[in-house]
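Revision sheet: structure tokens.
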Amino acid sequence: MSPSLAWLMLVIAGLLDVGWAISMKYAEGYTRPGWSIASLVLLAAFVFLLGRALKVLEIGVAYSVWTGIGAAGTFLIGVVLFGETLSAMKLAGIALVLTGIAALKLA
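Predicted:
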């Protein structure tokens, strides 16, 4: 697998991680069957893609990037879907996460 494909898989895994987190919220403690199944499918999909990407990419960089995508994406979707609070400090924190992801990718 090429490094470009591994990076693509990693980004998709990060986006699936966001979907997984949101589906867990909607699953309400795994009491709603449809959302619970969606959550488990998304979990399996992102673990699979992350594992494939790790065959090529350095684990420290890949895991940090994947976690950052998941954290930033979940935060932003939480604001949009669930009306979670948005402040200048939180935006600065997300900007730092995204800056860190870019730095790791460029390193």
